[in-house]
Structure formats: C-alpha cells, structure tokens
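## tool: complex_structure
## caller: assistant
## args:
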Amino acid sequence: MRSALHLCNFEKLASGSTFAGVIINRINYLISYNMLSKRSLVGVRLNFHTLAVLFFMLIGTQAFAADPAVVNSDEAIAAGKAVFNANCKTCHKLDQKMIGPALRGASERQPIEIVKAFIKNSQAVIASGNSYYNDLYKEYNNTIMISHEFLSDEDLNNLLSYIEYGDTVDPAAAAATTGADGGAVAAGGGIPNEYLTVILGVLVVVLLLILVVLGLIISVLTKYLTKQDLDVEDKEFVTQKTNLGKVFKSDMFVVIVTALVVALVAKTALDGLYSVGIQQGYAPEQPIAYSHALHAGTLEIECQYCHTGVEIGKSANIPSANICMNCHTHVQNVQGKEGVSPEIQKIYDAVDNNQPIEWVRVHNLPDLAYFNHSQHVVVGEVECQTCHGPIQEMEVVGQHSALTMGWCIDCHRQTEITTEGNAYYDKLVQLHTDSKDALKVKDIGGLECAKCHY
Amino acid sequence: MKIAKTLSILGIAVAGITLASCRAGGENQGLEFAPQMYHSVAYEPLTQITDSETKGEIISNREDGKGEYFNSNINNPHNMNMREPVANTVPRTKNGYLPYRYKAFEIEEAGTTLKNPIELNDEVLTEGKRLYQLYCTPCHGTGGQGDGKVGAIIGGVANLTGGAYITLSEGHIYHVITKGKGRMGAHGSQITPENRWKIVHYVKQELQGGQNADNAATTAEVVEEVEADQEVTQVETPAN
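## result:
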C-alpha cells in the first residue's frame, strides 16, 4: 500500500520535469524489483527507505531514516522540546557543539535503543564498551553526562522527535532576522556622542567665519568712509582707535582683576588644604585589569560573591584566586573570543605558581579611625554603593567618597534606624519617645568619639 | 618695585598650584596628613608595604634600618602579613561545626550520610533565599533553571528544577556546594557551613518543591543525634 501511494506521488511529480521523470522511472523499476525479492535478507522496507532518502535528497528535501517511534508530529516535538529545555539545553544545542555534541541526527548515528540507554545512564553504555560512545566520551575530555533514569520511554521518543525535527533553522532566514535586528538597533540609538562633538565643532567654525567676515566688512566700510567728505565730528568718530592701555590702567579694572585673582588663589589654597589627607578620586592601576563594570554591572554578580568578608568581618576582603577560578576555569576570554586573555592568564599564573596577586589598596582609613563592614552591611543594611559609588559602572575602581569624619558624621546624623521587630532597640525607642525626631544613629551613640577613635 | 610685585604674585600662584596638586586622583594618592597613621605600624591582613629602602620625610629611626613604612612579615612566604594556619589546625565555629572531611569524589557517601542540621523555618528559608541569590543566581538563575547570566557563558549549568536533580538528597547538594562537581567550582571557602545548609533548605523546599527533603530530621532530638553522629564520622575519617 505504502509503495503504491508513493508511486502516485512520483507520477504527479514526474509530469514536472524530464530529469525527475527519468529518476522516477528508475525508482519504479527498483521498487518492482524489490517487490519481487521480498524475501531477501535486506528486506523491502529498508531498501525502499534508502531509495526514498536518495530521491528526496535529489529533489532538495531533507529526510531521516529514523525509527518509526520517533515521529515528526507537532505534538511530539512540543513535548520533546519541554523535556529538552528542562534537562539538556544547558549542555547541548541541536546544531552546534556546546559542552556536549550537537544533537541533531543522534538517532541516526547509533541504534535508537542504545541512544535511549545512553540518555538514561551514559556511564553504563560507556562501560559496556560501545566504541562510538567511548570515542565521543574521549573527544569531550571525559565529561560525564548525568543520568536521566526518570525519563519514560515516551519522554525519550518525544525528545528524539524534537532533536531530529524540532526548531530547524533556515540559514537565510536567520541571517535576515539578525540583519533586521541590527538595523533596528542602529535606528533606535538616538544621536551618538561623537556626532554632538562634530556638530559643536562645526558651529564654532561657522561663528569664527562670521567674525572674520564682520571684521572685513568693518575695515572695508572704514576705508570707504575715510575717502568721503565728512564732518569733523564724524571724521573723529570714524578714525578713533580703541585705547586698550587706558582701560588696563583704569582703577576700576585694577580693583576687579585684583579681587578676582585674590579670590581664586584663596579658593585654590583652601581647597588644597582641605584635600590633605583625603584620597577621594584615587584610582590606581591594578595588576590585573579587572573590570567591575563587566562583572558586577553586565553580569550582575553580587558584591558578596567575591567580597566574602563583608557580612562577617571588619574588612570586605579581596577575593583569593580560587574564587576567580570558580568561573575562570571555563571562561578564558572576554565576550567569547578565542584563546586565553592575557589578563585572565595572570590568574592562571598566580594559581599555578602559588603566587599572591598584589592588588593595590584603594580605600585606606588611617589607624586613628575604626570601621567595620559587617556592622554597616548586616546591621545597618547599607548598600555597597552608598559609600563606594556606582561600582557596577567602574572599569577601574576609584575612591568615590571622601571618607572624612565629617562625611561619616553626616550620615550618622541623617540615617534613621529600623527598630521594628528588633527587641534590642525596645529600651532605646522608649527613651527616645520624648523627641520629635525619629530615632537616628546619632541618638544611639553614632556621634560618640570612642565609638570610632580608641 | 615692579619686580618685587611680580615675584609676590607669582609666589602666591605657585603656592596655590602646589596645594592644588595635593588632591588625590588617578595614580596620585594625594598628600597624607599624619602619614604614619595611614601606613599602619602593626601588621594588617590586607596591606603590605614591601619597600624597605625609602626613608620617610618626617621620622626614620627604625631600629631594623628598614624604610619608615616597611610593613611586611619577613618570616612569611612572599613576606605576606596573612599566613596559612598551622597544619592540622582545627577551626571551630560557634555552632561547633567541625571541618568538612569528605573529599570531592566521596559524593555518594556524603549524599547518604549527611543530614541538614539546621531546623527548617520561615526565617531560615528567607535567609536561604537571600544567600541563594548572592552565591547561586549568577549561574543557576533566580528560579534555579540554570539560566543565569554567568551560566550562559560557562555553560553546562544544572537546572535545579530538572528531573535529574530534583530527587537528590540534601547531603548531596551540600557536598556539591562545598566541593564542586563537574563544571561547578568549590564554594566551601566562600560560604560558611550554616549558610550552605540554609541554601540547601531553600533549594530543596522552594525550588524543588520539597522532594526527598530531610524534613523528618527537624525535630530537636534527631538533630542532636545527627550532630553527634557527624562528629563521630568526622573524627574517624582522615583529614583532607
């Protein structure tokens, strides 16, 4: 029956082109031949499928010699996609190598029962000595695929359906969508900064040109007027020169200039004196060009992931290289570039040689003042950015705040205390009920000298 | 007269500019007031001044003849001020946790023997969630589906809600956090044991819907028993 059905289709197609017609004639011949040799060891069905594949390849359609259990139906593919997304997608893609191989065609490369056994318990199949999977295991550096014993046979069939027939990507269409996306981004970006600078530059040039032109017009007009017969008064007016020397010597000018200079010098001197002992803005180059903008900003890694001391101790801690290696064992370059980045190589060198990375200290309080991170971060629930500024935007970390006593005290005067649900504050709240203001850090000893200086 | 006037104006200007350059910025740390307070005399864990030549501008009468601010421990490797604990030192926490003895490959044993010693309650779950978001979300994502931003780069991140992981024991999860597994690094140095167990509670209860959880071990009696049991096994297993 199946053969007959296909024959009809072939005949329909055959009317299209003589070339196809020739092939179809050949296939018809082969099919009839196969029908005759039904009892051969090869079997009709396999041969027919092989031919069908050949035929479909010739007319430009893809087909797979898949197991009949792996059906190409929307339902099976949708169910398989759910299984794939829940269990496979972090290591596998359909058409691309990732942690593991590209999956499409998996049920062609090995008998379907072995594929299913491998998905369920990969180590058992490898131990059984299957050469294909042993080679694959070696190719992927002996990375063990976890077992999925819980998947039912139906799940596996659906999964394989998705792997074979799901989400086929037409390269031309993919290119077109990315192209369209790119265009949209460029259009929606507004005026870039560089253009603004260019526009300003052009405006300045235009203004200068206008000035030159005006100057030329004045000189031409003056020349013309001096040649005319004019009254004495007018003549005087035309020929008069601006006397700059006179302006410079006038009392008014001297007083204004002196006052300005004195004010400026006094301001610089005072600012300079106030900046003694303040390291605000200090942003030294570090031994590794580590970017907080990338790690804390783009990748949204929390500060505490690396600065482990911040909730339990006085110091926030600079992470040791083993914390870097949690990710950088695998991430060897930025933005998926090939090779090892020279900056990341420095971590590897430090780890290999057991050599400390000598980061340059940015924030340094003098010994006369005591500061404790855990007190502020855990108890006070102060955000890191309150004192350290927009760290998640800094390529090179600099000292954002002044870290002067005035700066500390300001915050202690303004910050209210969250007392609800904390029995520690009950007595303090009771003592404070007379005051109109809310309970602030200053009211519980935030201004006492000995809290920080001892 | 005129020269004197010019000189005095110049002098003021120079003084102003010099003072302005005291300001910190970029590589310049700025002028320090009382520099001996900024360069600690006592050893500080995260600071190390290795320069033994430069004499300070103010006082330099050190007995050892080193530079005024020299502050490194010459007896330590790399002259560091921090030092690894003496071999076989046993750190003790206020909860009495002993060091974790299982080696990275002893995942089966850890998975079957370890029980969560932290009593499960809402407070623990909230804290567990906070800690999970600090230490786990970069890779495993907020919902535990292995879709974190860093996870996308590293690849091969476990979907904690997936069938292969949902039935794992709490001890198994604790072991993987502590020692790492597959592409995941060991987080034992970053997260305290209590916090690791809190994360385990959160993962088990909230992300995995309580499947195969140690809830039975939450009564005080059993917890005590487990703790005693742990101590015994920990004493018996060799130190790593």
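## assistant note: The two ends of chain A are 98 Å apart (CA to CA). Confidence is low (pLDDT under 50) at residues 1-44, 51-65, 177-188 of chain A. Handing back to user.
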